[in-house]
Amino acid sequence: MKIAIYPGTFDPITYGHIDVLERALEIFDKVIITIAHNTAKEPLFTDPERLDMVKHVIKKYGKHTDTEYFDGLLVNYARKKKAIALVRGLRAVSDFEYELQMALMNRKLANDITTIFFMPHEKHTYLNSSIVREIALLNGDISSFVPAYVQKILKSKVQKLRKRKK
Ligand code: COA
Fold first, then answer.
1. Is this structure's pTM higher than 0.90?
2. CA angle, corner 7, sides to 135 and 57, nearest 5?
3. How many separate domains does the chain show?
4. Distance from Cα 148 to the centre of ligand 1, integer Å
């Protein structure tokens, strides 16, 4: 059984992430979406909220996917899960340097785990979670960027934030 880990902040999960997941599922028997901790980020959604959104979105892939939160060194988690690869998406050249550094560092830490990059469809090239959050906060239409469930959660988060500000 070929298992891969797809790590990220997923704040929130977008159609771009789902595109990468579906490409990975064509190659791996199981892809575990790991909501990992990026020390440089302070997410809008709590860990349980991000987990809930991912869980809802991946339901349709059945036993071929799973999701968990993990706060620690990613390669240790990958080993624990008997994963052979880490999946990441490459949208544009601007992603490359950061991804190269992470992939090489992870290889240095765990030579038996390979990072594999997938290029999402070009219609998702401009997409990232921050821009989706910003559009939602400014009342814009996010229906073509995130699934309906994520849209609903994002809208209710925005409403809560507005109430708190008043
Ligand atoms: N479609 C749309 N957006 C995408 C995307 C895609 N296919 N692929 C990436 N993105 C966006 C994300 O939405 C995110 O946007 P944001 O910055 O606006 O939130 C950004 O690109 C990249 O984020 P993400 O893919 O979530 O990764 P990350 O950089 O936040 O996560 C970790 C990095 C969590 C994987 C990394 O910090 C890690 O491994 N942490 C664990 C600790 C560890 O082992 N550290 C050592 C690493 S060498």
1. yes
2. 60
3. 1
4. 22
Ligand 1 atom showing the smallest separation from residue 73 Cα: 44
**Amino acid making up residue 100:** L
Query: Is position 50 annotated as part of the catalytic site?
Result: no
118 CA: nearest ligand 1 atom: 7
* CATH number of the domain enclosing 16: 3.40.50.620
Q: Which domain holds residue 62?
A: 3-125
Q: How far is the centre of ligand 1, averaged over its atoms, from the C-alpha of 166 (Å)?
A: 32
In a domain, 75, yes or no: yes
- Establish if 154 belongs to a structural domain: no
Annotated active-site residue 41? The verdict is: yes
Which of 95, 3, 17 lies closest to 50, judged by CA?
A: 17
Tens of each residue's pLDDT in the chain, 166 residues = 999 999 999 999 999 999 999 999 999 999 999 999 899 999 999 999 999 999 999 999 999 999 999 999 999 999 999 999 999 999 988 899 999 999 999 999 999 999 999 999 999 999 999 999 999 999 999 999 999 999 999 999 999 988 887 7
8 C-alpha to ligand 1 centroid (Å): 4
Whether residue 19 lies inside any domain: the answer is yes
Amino acid identity of residue 143, one-letter, is: S
